[in-house]
Amino acid sequence: MAKRIEAVGVTAYYGTFKAIEDITMTIEPRSVTALIGPSGCGKSTFLRSINRMHEVLPGARVEGRLTLDGNDIYERNVDVTAVRRNIGMVFQRPNPFPTMSIFDNVVAGLKLNGVRKKSLLDDAAEKALKSANLWDEVKNRLGKPGAGLSGGQQQRLCIARTIAVQPAVVLMDEPCSALDPISTGAIEDLIFELKNEYTIIIVTHNMQQAARVSDRTAFFSISQTGDPGRLIEHDVTSKIFTNPREKRTEDYITGRFG
Amino acid sequence: MTTISTPGIGTDLRGRRLPKWAPWAIAAGAAVLSYLAIYLGGLLDGGWVLTAVVAVLLYLVLLAAVATGVEGSRAARNRVATSLIYSAFVLALLPLLSVVYTLVSKGVSRIDADFFTHSMNGITAFDANGGAYHAMIGTLEQVGLAALISVPLGVAAAVYIVEYGRGKLATAIRFFVDVMTGIPSIIAGLFVLAFYVFGMYKFFNHGQGGYSGFAASLALVVLMLPTVTRSCEEMLRLVPDALREGSYALGIAKWKTVMRVVLPTALPGIVTGVMLAVARAAGETAPVLLVSGGFNSINFNPFSGNQSSLAIYIWDQAGAASQYAPARAWSAALTLVAFVLTLTIVAKLLARRSKLK
Amino acid sequence: MNPPSLPGSTQSAEPPEREQSPWGPERRLPESTPAADAATTRAQEARVPVDLGRRKSLNGEKLFRWLTTGSGAAVLVIIVAIAVFLIAKAIPAIQGDKVNFLTEKTWQVPDRVFGVAALAFGTVYTAVIALIIAVPVALGIALCLSHYAHRTVATTLGFVIDLLAAVPSIVFGLWGREYLIDPVRDLSAWLHKYFGWIPIFGSDGPYGKSILLGSLVLAIMILPIITALSREVFQQTPKMNEEAALALGATKWEMIRTAVLPYGRPGLIAATILGLGRALGETIALAMTLGGTFVISWDVVEVGGNTIAANIANHFGEADDFGRGALIASGLVLFAITLVVNVTARVIIYRRREFRSAL
Q1: Residue A199 in 3-state DSSP?
Q2: Residue A235 forms beta bridges with which residues?
């Protein structure tokens, strides 16, 4: 189910501004890859170009080659909605649909895909909520609004909503930055469990988090403001944090820069 | 791995897509079909309007059918919804463009010096000349007086709501300001008719009721007051509390803070709101028609005697039995729209420049 | 003369300055730039009125508070006064009416036989048809401006639509009566020919000023209002909810249905009801485009149609004191209808306060 992502020479623009340049990296299935780097280095841009959310913004475009198990996701006759269905995304701030119940939030993606049968939806919702470690907390109030949950629960609800459609890859854009330490711990545990089934890429500003949850870490950086972000180093997490190849990585990790 | 079968969710990224030219081809096909059947064939009586309507409907149906077949129902629904949304847009633009075109093309005929310098005094049904000078004076005086009354009152009411209002009274006032914005203009006219024209005015006029430009101003006040209050309230709320607190910290009294800090900060926004209210009031016909009486000659005094206004002038000329009247009505309409739109555009540009919004 | 007078003048100028400020030397000790001096002087000057002004500003405070409270209360007073004066003028007319004012259809004031039934029906019927035409179109334009059209195009056209909301209703009335009437006449004949079996297109002519014409003009007038409000509401949809829908693999239309429309529903309902309020109260445009009959008929193509407001505008000129009372009585009914509609809309909006800025 989990799939490999390969990026070759990916360059992304916002209008005329080049946000990232020439990113080449391979992300293995059933692993957690953390993207770290200073603000504005293009980690989120790269993340959003993996499921073609980058192009949602007016004037934004991507060049280069991005493949999911060998299938180019930017090929001309590729269906954008199929890409996003297969590569799910969890956002920085928990964003359950405010007008929907917990249950409806979880099955929103399935309903969009034409699943109507109540029993199927029930099963899928239970499975997704269990996978997101949220089932026990919400099983008695599935009909209540999703917005009534705590921030950490909302974020787990959003993860449940994402994995309910059974994607191959889950992208996480600083999923814990709006949460307290306890909720963050819960999400981190969850990420650890989810990597058995999914390919996970997580953008984070928190280096301890990167060290805790990820198998591999990619360090992005910019040489100066206005320059495009580049991939400086991509390696096994322990190597990045103990013995980085690049001086810039070391400076960032040790807090001398960024 | 235990996976529940979820039909409809494919893992294949590639979907069959209609080529870019397909919608255009379908559009062309629908147009040709409609042209042949409706325009040439005379089906349903023909005519180019019907041809266009049928072409659009055919396009939607064909697009839905083709897209469902090739891309699936979800993509088809997306395409049809997009087409519908754009057609709604075009559909709405047509009458609005027609209004503008008619207004300008028919209105320019009497835009001449005579129109802006003469009244209708002594103009018979057989005279082509005659102007709207008296009406313009009426509009300016009535709207000006209305603004003089409603602006201080409205700003003060907004200050109360934002700065002082607490508890039930403030809630009630805010609620009824909103409700008052929805009062039909003719009701404002009827109210002033009962309250002033055949009420208060008798005290100044030896027990006789009478129409006047000022009565029209009063009716406009009823209409402008909630608008001014609402927009002013919005602007006052945008003033950051830090400014107020900074002023209090200097030991400046609350009312002076409001007068010297809060109101000046919100001023550009308030001016915008006032100008929009004035623009709306200038175009009001029904209430003015009821209480100002209308008049063919110049009356500079808004407090006594009938007075005309541009809106009444249009109403009168549109109903007058003279072959020259419609031209005068259209020219007056063009003048009125030019005045109202100038005010509105200036107000909106001012709002864009203002820092608060 | 010159050399001795120069030192003399400087000498005579310096002593008074020292006298005026005995603590001058100490003051100059830290730094004696002119700006710092001026600031200190100003601060000293300002210090005096603060003590004196305290009592004064308390009075000012009280006065100001009363002034603003009074202005706020004026709104309540005006609303109450409107109701009181309309009722006071309406009572004699209703008492002088030989038939039931609420159920009578005709308007024969000289015979003392008049009622508001046909007018009230026409008012609501015309407004509802206008809404049925305008709301879907307005919804489409609002979505187009908020989510489909290119941003510069959307801003420009949004501006134009705002401007159209400012065009006076008499201009729309004039356009409807002088221009739109011909196409509508043709449309009426066509509708009757092919859809005459539907009762609302039943009339076989002649066609002209009809409910169809009035409703179309009305729809065009309220279109900018409903559009402006809905667009504002749609634009407030949180970007993160839209992205959440897209990230689940929704098509654009599915994103609109999942994120935008549910979020905007209360605002849309409020916009529709406010549009209805505007349509119910519209006077001049309908006075110029409706036929002005006094019957209750569902037929939209026949010459006819009337509303309370249009009837007031059309019959006001010929009315005597009693007739004015009768018209005011009908106005009272209109006032009540619009009040109910507006209060309903406001209650909905107050439940979702974030939409208030849009209205």
Answers
A1: strand
A2: A217
Q: Enumerate residues 149 to 208 of chain A having a beta carbon within 8 A of any beta carbon in chain C.
A: 158, 161-162, 165
- Nearest of A137, C181, C142 to residue B88 by alpha carbon: C142
The domain ranges of chain B are 21-109, 116-353
Interface test with C, best of B89, B91, B166 (most C CBs within 10 A): B89
**pLDDT by 10-residue block (mean), chain C, 359 residues:** 39 39 40 50 51 57 90 91 92 90 89 92 95 94 92 87 86 92 91 90 86 95 90 89 92 93 86 88 92 90 92 89 92 91 79 47
Residue A72's SS3 state is strand
Other CB atoms within 10 A of residue A143 CB:
9
pLDDT tens per residue, range C187-202:
999 999 899 899 889 8
Tell me whether C312 touches chain B (CB under 8 Å).
yes
In this structure, are residues C161 and C224 in contact, taking their beta carbons and an 8 Å threshold? yes
CB < 8 Å from A in window 17-56 of B: 17
Chain C nearest-CA distance from A101, in A, is 12
Task: Look at residue A34 and give its three-state secondary structure.
Answer: strand
Residue A1 neighbours by CB distance under 10 Å: 16
Residues from chain A that touch B11, judged by Cβ atoms under 8 A, are: 86, 168
What is the Cα C354 distance to its own chain's centre?
18
pLDDT above 50 (res B243) = yes
- Residue A127: list chain B partners with CB under 8 A: 4
β-pair type (A199-203, A169-173): parallel
Residue A225, strand partner residues: none
The pTM score is 0.83
Domains and CATH numbers, chain A: 5-253 (3.40.50.300)
Q: Determine the 3-state secondary structure of B10 from DSSP.
A: coil
Which chains border A (3 or more CB–CB pairs < 8 Å)? Answer: B, C
- Please enumerate in sequence order all residues whose Cβ is within 8 A of that of B122, keeping only pairs 6 or more positions apart, or say none: none
3-state secondary structure of A35: strand
Domain boundaries, chain C: 97-358
pLDDT in tens, A24-45: 999 999 999 999 998 888 999 9
Would you call A146 an interface residue with chain C, using a CB distance cutoff of 8 Å? Answer: no
8 Å CB contact of C244 and A97: yes
Q: Which fold has domain C97-358?
A: MetI-like fold (1.10.3720)
Q: Do B318 and C288 touch (CB under 8 A)?
A: yes
CA separation for the pair A27, B45 (Å, rounded): 66
3 state SS of B199: helix
Does A67 lie at the interface with B, CB-CB under 8 angstroms?
A: no
Q: Do A161 and C238 touch (CB under 8 A)?
A: no
Best residue of A74, A76, A79 to probe chain B, by most B CBs closer than 10 Å: A79
DSSP string, C286-320: HHHHS---------SSBB----HHHHHHHHSTT--
* Strands A5-14 and A17-27, sheet pairing: antiparallel
Overall CATH class of domain B116-353? mainly alpha
The tokens describing A185, both together, are 């711990």
Does the bond joining C25 to the residue before it have cis omega, within 30 degrees of 0? no
